[in-house]
Specification:
Order of helices and strands: HEHEHEEEHEEHEEHEEEE
CATH topology of the largest domain: Rossmann fold
Structural class: alpha/beta
Pathway: Carbohydrate degradation; pentose phosphate pathway; D-ribose 5-phosphate from D-ribulose 5-phosphate (non-oxidative stage): step 1/1
Catalytic activity: aldehydo-D-ribose 5-phosphate = D-ribulose 5-phosphate
Strand content: 25-35%
InterPro entries: NagB/RpiA_transferase-like, Ribose5P_isomerase_typA_subgr, Ribose5P_isomerase_type_A
CATH architecture of the largest domain: 3-Layer(aba) Sandwich
Family: Belongs to the ribose 5-phosphate isomerase family.
CATH class of the largest domain: Alpha Beta
Number of helices: 6
Helix content: 25-40%
Largest sheet: 6 strands, mixed
Number of strands: 13
Subunit structure: Homodimer.
Radius of gyration: 17 Å
Number of domains: 2
Bound molecules: ribulose-5-phosphate
Strand order of the largest sheet: 2-1-3-6-12-13
Distance between the termini: 27 Å
């Protein structure tokens, strides 16, 4: 199976966690696109979704799903999203698609985070994938200097987030204590969100492998 087929397989597998009649949290990325396709095909009664990006909102609406602003919703049962890397403790690097801040917000209010990923995303140590950090535009240079002091090599992405901010992709870190790093990096003034999802990691990992979809639970 190629990578796209693995993404489709985990997208379909995630349907098992969608409860009919319940508001659903929807993440962002090519794997989530496969999930949205599967959701549409399934015909499951989803009264409304909360989306983590303009991209996913547009796709959901094009399929006829209702998308609510998070301020209209008190809680979400299940949030389905992808990851760039996930470690054995269910901590993740996210933000390859630049939607990390909204993803972290929707994940925070969701009872269960179901991560869908192909097997290339499962790692022992986070950091081979450069860590995305969303930064207020005027603070790009200042935050970069702080990151360099911590041994990271920040590269400014040619991209503006849905929130009007910039992304620094940080190379060179091997992250074993993800929760501590998440906290430390979030404290740099000018950082909006760090793409480490450790404090609120995944609860379930659906991993697409050539032997089929494997389920891991925290
Ligand atoms: O965090 C994300 C977007 O901000 C995505 O979940 C992550 O980049 C994985 O994307 P893909 O499914 O396309 O590999």
């Amino acid at each position: 199976m190629d990578q796209q087929e693995l993404k489709k397989a985990v997208g379909r597998a995630a349907l098992e966690y969608v409860k009919p009649g319940e508001i659903l949290g929807v993440g962002t990325g090519s794997t989530v696109d496969c999930f949205i396709d599967a959701l549409k095909e399934s015909g499951i009664d989803v009264p409304a979704c909360v989306s983590s990006s303009v991209r996913s909102t547009q796709k959901l609406q094009a399929y006829g799903f209702k998308v609510l602003d998070l301020n209209e919703v008190e809680k979400i049962g299940v949030y389905v999203d992808g990851a760039d890397e996930i470690d054995p403790h269910f901590a993740m690097i996210k933000g390859g698609g630049g939607a990390l801040t909204r993803e972290k917000i929707v994940a925070m209010v969701s009872e269960r985070f179901v991560c869908i990923a192909d097997e290339s995303k499962k790692v022992d140590v986070l950091g081979k994938f450069p860590l995305p950090i969303e930064v207020i535009p005027m603070a790009v240079r200042a935050v970069s200097r702080e990151i360099e002091k911590l041994g990271g090599k920040p590269v400014l992405r040619d991209f503006t987030t849905d929130n009007g901010n910039k992304i620094l992709d940080v190379h060179g870190w091997q992250i074993t204590d993800a929760e501590q790093w998440e906290q430390k990096l979030n404290q740099i003034v000018g950082v909006v969100t760090v793409g480490l999802f450790a404090k609120r990691g995944a609860d379930v990992l659906l991993l697409g492998t050539s032997q089929g979809v494997k389920t891991f639970k925290r």
